[in-house]
Amino acid sequence: MPLAEESTFPRDPPLTLPLVIIGNGPSGICLSYMLSGYRPYLSPDAIHPNPIIQSRLEEARHLSIIEQDLEYLSEGLEGRSSNPVAVLLDTLLHPNADFGYDYQSVLQWKLEQEHYIPHIVLGRGPPGGAWNNMEGSMLTLSLGDWMELPGLKFKDWAMGKRRNLKSDRATPAEVASYYKHFVKVMGLQRNFIDNTCITSVVKPYREQEESTGHGNGVVVALEGPQISEGTDEPMLKKNWEIQGYQRTADGSHRPFCIFAEAIALATGTFDSPARLGVSGEDLPYVSHCITKFEAAVGKGKLSGSVDPVLIVGAGLTAADAILCAYNNNIPVIHAFRRRVNDPSLIFKQLPKKLYPEYHKVYHMMCAKSHTMASSLHECYTSFPEHCIHSFKPDMRCVLQGTGGLKVLKISMAVVLIGSHPNLSFLKEQGRNLGHHPNQPISCKGNPVEIDPYTYEALKEPNVFALGPLVGDNFIRFLKGGALAITRCLDMRQKSRHRLVESDGVS
């Protein structure tokens, strides 16, 4: 049965849940939506522009996509994700979107409550995750409808919320509000427990039947390995033990300990900004957050005749900072390690027609290099293939390139080179789950290594991951992870039921 409506732990929680979702951002919300029984079907009159996809969908029109062979449906598809199921669901929801088309989704969503899989979603704040902390009015990367979750079109929701509907792009505040509304209107609140901090996720040794007790809404495991009768070996309980605390309205901490057959990591990767690891990085004029830079611009601290702002990084957040400075006539020095023609630059993956402002930044990166003295831009100069050597107390930065060191006077430094997830509750912060076990988990360099059709971690059974943790940084692609996980759990549940029925017959 689902949990109570209140966003707090019930006083008598289930002994063991099929799944606990860690993270209540769009990844966790979307997974909860599908686990709650919402299922995608091919719409009766829908025709996909790709005839091969249309033909495959017609073969099992009566079945939901969750009940079909995802490997077969996604075979041969290409898109802006390395995960095939993510590409599959995206092309069903937004056919040919990367070519600039605005085709309608070919899917319709039906609530089938008999398919509900009990679960809870644990989040550090309200539903929406990191979107609740993204201040400012900068437009989001994606078009508004690419930020939406299944079953509730962003434009329909925005009609009564936005004063200016000319832009298809949305602000972070609008997106955060949309996600909160989505959880409410879809009836998902019963699954969400807010204001939680998870301190430990482990597989304990304990007795199957006698090691679980209740007390004030807390499930507690006996300490130490238990010896099962008739053997000298401790019994390994397959379930996960999740410990932490919930912050209550009066500011106190209420500890909890729950058990789950499986966990889904949906934490995103915005918890800890990546650092350069150079001398002087902790000086007051060096920031690792775009919101601090935007606040300084808003207060007029960087207006007038000032030294340039140094922006480090070649991603979209760095591009946002450059656009903010450019639009406020603040001179910029832009340093990044890659070549301007590096095919892995994110700007080369975005359609120019849909993202003209980001391609404007990319054009400046190419055309306004410090090596082109005759065409130096008065408000922007790029330093490709440069890294930061050090920051000095007198607000000077030392850049290192192929030609040696350069010392530049700056008014502020904004380091925007990515971020890392907070997986401190896992052993070794989850490093064993990545493609490179000796490195921290990161969305680009070392994502969680998963089965592409179930999103289960290859190196740890009953651990699933989705969203940025598996390299799907765009919201439009994380929905595929929710689909794959839901299908996997649904198939296991059906297999278990068949086994029980078989045992009953025998």
From TrEMBL:
One of its GO terms (molecular function) is growth factor activity. Gene3D superfamilies: FAD/NAD(P)-binding domain. Transmembrane segments: none annotated. This is Oxidative stress induced growth inhibitor family member 2. GO terms for biological process: negative regulation of cell growth. PANTHER family: OXIDATIVE STRESS-INDUCED GROWTH INHIBITOR 2 (PTHR15192:SF4), PROTEIN CBG05349 (PTHR15192). InterPro entries: FAD/NAD-bd_sf, OSGIN1/2.
